[in-house]
Amino acid sequence: MIALARPRGARFALGVLFGAAAAGAGVALLGVAGWLLATAAQHPPITALSVAVVATRALGVTRGVTRYLERLVTHDAAFRTLTDVRVRVYQRLAATEPVRRFRSGDLVSRLVSDTDAAQDLLVRGLTPPLVAIVTGGATVAVCTALFAPGGLLLATGLLLAGLAVPLAAALLGRGPGRRQAAARGELSTALVDALYGAPDLIAYGAMDRAVTRVQRADAELTRVARRDAGLLGFGAGATALVTGLTVWGALLLGVAAVAGGSLDAISLAVLVLTSLAAFEIVAPLPAVAARLGAVRAGGERLFDVLDTPPAVEEPEHGRELPAGAVDLRVRGLRVRYAADEEWALDGIDLDVPAGRTVAVLGPSGAGKSTLAAVLFRFRDPDEGTVLLGGADLTGYPVDEARAAISGVPQDPHVFASTLRENLRLARPGAHDDELWEALRRARLASDVEAMPEGLDTEVGSHGARLSGGMRQRLALTRALLADPRLLVLDEPTAHLDPDTRDAVVADLLAATRGRSTLLITHDLAGLDRVDEIYVIADGRVIEHGSHTDLLARDGWYRRAHTAAR
């Protein structure tokens, strides 16, 4: 995490210098004030005090100005670094596959709270210790030159308050910090699950259990926060104790030295007040150390996202897609999600000739959606090849491959915006006439026309204001607007009633006539109008042929067709 700040190391160094100047001005201000008061008590000529009076005013102004500059420079550098961190996280998540590996609520916590851990480290974890080293060393040197025993005592006190106490706070805070990050993620996950799942939870009488889960997560986070507050109290109390003992020790040593004639009274006042002011330098360090456990845990959770291995590799030298229509050839495709799991696809062979419509049919769990994920470039094949236009699909730039092979995934996302903006995701410059034409193809135009605001209708979060069938047809409309080289439709009729399903399939096949189309479905509707059908089960092709050919055989397709009548 510290390495993330390396590009702005000069800014942080400047912030440390300003911080050291502010802290040094604060210490010097109290030391000069002590000298001024002790000297004034002896009633010298006013001219003897004029320099100290001016110095006191100058140090007061310097302290305020340099403190402001220190905060300005360090926060500016930290926020710029934080921007880079967020961009890296967003770029990583834009690859889509890491999103599927984390719970949504936990992912929100990683993006917000755990990303801010970098800010805590850079602002509170770097500058104060460096400032303490620079200013504390200078203060000890001055006090040692003034009175060696007092300087050595001050050095001991600063080491205890600035090193021993923070180390103890860091050790005690390691476990609570880790638990706090985990508890925050659990609370966020429980809240998101309860909010977005509220209709189903209420319908099945499970809302009380969901609320109880939120309460348990909140209670755990509160308990850990109390422990964290206790650590902060320990650090503040221990620092106050060391400060008091050191100042009292310096005072007693100084009084003895004054009585022995080795130290004058004015130097005693300067020594004691300077020692008192010096502990302001190390006062923030125990709180910083107590937070290091939480910062470290947040950083680990953040880098879990950044270090998630990509499921899709970007080629170093991507080739260009050929012009015109392209065919798809799949040979020996094998995919599995973990080394110890069964193959989701086990040697699939598949052809989609240019301009033809091919269907992939099979029961749930057969591997159809895994095939769609490979074609959509959500993951790479483990074995085998996918050839698009005669070249390996993985050799094309990822974005170009996704533009060439696009369509409707099994669970398409609807954004919390208007119908028009959701449609324009597929074609940003599309005019309303083009949007309405695509809506008519997907049999959604009449529903949109019935809405008072038409294309300006807000669909709500995740399309909550639309029915399941309308959300699916909205995704179909986007697929038609995208106009890819190969249109892949993964379960396009899910959530539709039988009449609408048959109509949508008929319109869809009519709209895609003459273009390369792969229809992935478990439904037999409309398959008599496709050119070829592949039946897969357990990750393998078990039948292949036209609708007529498959009906003539005594196989899975014929039995499923007979059962559906």
Structural features, described:
This protein is of the alpha/beta class. The mean pLDDT is 86. The chain folds into two domains: 2-306, ABC transporter transmembrane region fold; 328-564, Rossmann fold. The longest helix has 54 residues, at 207-260. Helices cover 62% and strands 10% of the residues. The chain contains 17 helices and ten strands. The strands form two sheets. It has a six-stranded mixed beta sheet with strand order 6-7-8-3-9-10. Strands 2-1-4-5 form a four-stranded antiparallel beta sheet, covered by helices on one side. α1 (9-40) runs antiparallel to α7. A hairpin with a 2-residue loop joins β9 (532-537) and β10. This is Thiol reductant ABC exporter subunit CydC. InterPro entries: AAA+_ATPase, ABC1_TM_dom, ABC1_TM_sf, ABC_CydC/D, ABC_transporter-like_ATP-bd, P-loop_NTPase, Type_1_exporter.
